[in-house]
Amino acid sequence: NVSVVLFTSDLRLHDHPPLRAALQGSRQVVPLFVRDRAVTGAGFAVPNRLAFLADCLRDLDAGLRERGGRLVVRSGDVVEEVCRVAAEADADEVHLAADASAYAQRREARLRRALEAEGVRLHVHDTVTSAVDPGAVAPASSDHFAVFTPYFGHWSRRGLREVLGAPRKVAVPDGVGSEDLPTRRGLAGLSPDLAAGGETEGRGRLTAWLRSGVAAYEDRHDDLAGDATSRLSPHLHFGTLSPVELVHRARAAGGPGAEAFVRQVAWRDFHRQVLAARPEAASADYRTKHDRWRTERTAGEDIEAWREGRTGYPVVDAAMRQLRREGWMHNRGRLLAASFLTKTLYVDWRVGARHFLDLLVDGDVANNQLNWQWMAGTGTDSRPNRVLNPVTQAKRYDPEGAYVRRWVPELAEVAGPAVHEPWKLRKPDDPAPDYPDPLIELSDGLARFRRARERD
Ligand code: FAD
């Protein structure tokens, strides 16, 4: 008999429960990826992620070919394509990874109905896209955790399944047609320093990180210039790395750095279980409602200055320019850029979240929308009125100013931490003549924020 394995956010051969189950139960397997019309139509398929995806699909295909198989790529409605491929291959089973978003849940339900009508069974596998799946741990009084610390306690105590090796051989039936694999060529608007995708790349990065990066993670993860985080986020997003394997291997590395790193990976599962339980949180305020946000219509110029990295606050501008250049931003930069937009400029978090999703190679509905909500004070944060001061934060997390000088060339000649307050340098021999004045006084932003919060 024949099985179809539908790859979605799990573009790997190692530690892949759906592929393992398909190979155990069937003589032949069709590894399938569908370029899903609904995802493209929703504006989610942006150049940076399409490029990374193309790398992932090519690497997956290469890995399958080494094992005697190949990847089948189709475009269109995902449910129609899966049914069509199942019919062409005369398959009696389809295997799929469970996923957290509302879209993934709808896709699963539609697939189940359509396949059942054809007499084909759908198997949905847990612990593929999360280490601990949504709903696997829950508090007594609710369907999900809204506070991270107790969640993390349960998450940590939960046993993980064993890691599965990559298959040695994958036999794919003849006669199932495939489109050409996508490439990066022809994609306009890519970030020039975008990372490379693919399982091979992701595994290499993980091994290097566990050997020489993770030990210092606890001390250095907030060091903006040190760039001392794993940069594994796009690999977790596309599933070129398995979260279960990642946690096992980090725990095996041991030490306070690895523990702090695993805790951060648990934040990913935390947000996924919030989104799975409250799918509307992708666009609506999760907890505290705010109606007075400024928007594109009322704050268009401020928003454009923020997007382009010319707010006049160097650390915010550095972060926004890193995003454009690399399609990635340091977590501390994301926090500062989000606090500045939502609290200092009082702009709707959805405007910022959309811009991030347009560029981030790791752009992810759960992590992006819920982190934005966290910083905007509408989400799960227990201190919703916290405002990050970009000057004090810059002095703490970029004490020598090296991060700012790297990304804001207008300030490259300013030595030391003075780079964080260029307005203090304004004199006739100004070393930063091209750099803008602050868009707003921080105290004015804070006062507006407090007034609005009192009225909301
Ligand atoms: P590391 O510090 O090495 O952490 C390891 C992994 O843990 C990450 O790859 C990620 O999967 C997970 N992780 C770390 N921090 C968080 C967090 N705060 N929430 C959830 N998971 C976390 N992350 C995304 O993957 N996609 C997004 O679209 C995204 N948008 C964000 C938007 C804002 C406003 C903020 C404040 C954070 C956002 N994050 C997002 C979370 C975090 O900034 C990134 O995961 C992290 O910077 C990625 O770099 P890294 O892989 O080097 O992280």
UniProtKB/TrEMBL annotation:
<feature type="binding site">
    <location>
        <begin position="229"/>
        <end position="233"/>
    </location>
    <ligand>
        <name>FAD</name>
    </ligand>
</feature>
<dbReference type="GO" id="GO:0009416">
    <property type="term" value="P:response to light stimulus"/>
</dbReference>
<dbReference type="InterPro" id="IPR036155">
    <property type="entry name" value="Crypto/Photolyase_N_sf"/>
</dbReference>
<feature type="site" description="Electron transfer via tryptophanyl radical">
    <location>
        <position position="349"/>
    </location>
</feature>
<dbReference type="GO" id="GO:0006139">
    <property type="term" value="P:nucleobase-containing compound metabolic process"/>
</dbReference>
<dbReference type="InterPro" id="IPR018394">
    <property type="entry name" value="DNA_photolyase_1_CS_C"/>
</dbReference>
<feature type="binding site">
    <location>
        <position position="261"/>
    </location>
    <ligand>
        <name>FAD</name>
    </ligand>
</feature>
<dbReference type="InterPro" id="IPR002081">
    <property type="entry name" value="Cryptochrome/DNA_photolyase_1"/>
</dbReference>
<feature type="binding site">
    <location>
        <begin position="362"/>
        <end position="364"/>
    </location>
    <ligand>
        <name>FAD</name>
    </ligand>
</feature>
<feature type="domain" description="Photolyase/cryptochrome alpha/beta">
    <location>
        <begin position="1"/>
        <end position="130"/>
    </location>
</feature>
<dbReference type="InterPro" id="IPR005101">
    <property type="entry name" value="Cryptochr/Photolyase_FAD-bd"/>
</dbReference>
<dbReference type="InterPro" id="IPR036134">
    <property type="entry name" value="Crypto/Photolyase_FAD-like_sf"/>
</dbReference>
<feature type="site" description="Electron transfer via tryptophanyl radical">
    <location>
        <position position="372"/>
    </location>
</feature>
<feature type="binding site">
    <location>
        <position position="217"/>
    </location>
    <ligand>
        <name>FAD</name>
    </ligand>
</feature>
<dbReference type="Pfam" id="PF00875">
    <property type="entry name" value="DNA_photolyase"/>
</dbReference>
<keyword id="KW-0274">FAD</keyword>
<keyword id="KW-0285">Flavoprotein</keyword>
<comment type="similarity">
    <text>Belongs to the DNA photolyase family.</text>
</comment>
<protein>
    <submittedName>
        <fullName>Deoxyribodipyrimidine photo-lyase</fullName>
    </submittedName>
</protein>
<dbReference type="GO" id="GO:0071949">
    <property type="term" value="F:FAD binding"/>
</dbReference>
<dbReference type="GO" id="GO:0006950">
    <property type="term" value="P:response to stress"/>
</dbReference>
<dbReference type="Pfam" id="PF03441">
    <property type="entry name" value="FAD_binding_7"/>
</dbReference>
<feature type="site" description="Electron transfer via tryptophanyl radical">
    <location>
        <position position="293"/>
    </location>
</feature>
<dbReference type="InterPro" id="IPR014729">
    <property type="entry name" value="Rossmann-like_a/b/a_fold"/>
</dbReference>
<dbReference type="GO" id="GO:0003677">
    <property type="term" value="F:DNA binding"/>
</dbReference>
<dbReference type="InterPro" id="IPR006050">
    <property type="entry name" value="DNA_photolyase_N"/>
</dbReference>
<dbReference type="GO" id="GO:0003904">
    <property type="term" value="F:deoxyribodipyrimidine photo-lyase activity"/>
</dbReference>
<keyword id="KW-0157">Chromophore</keyword>
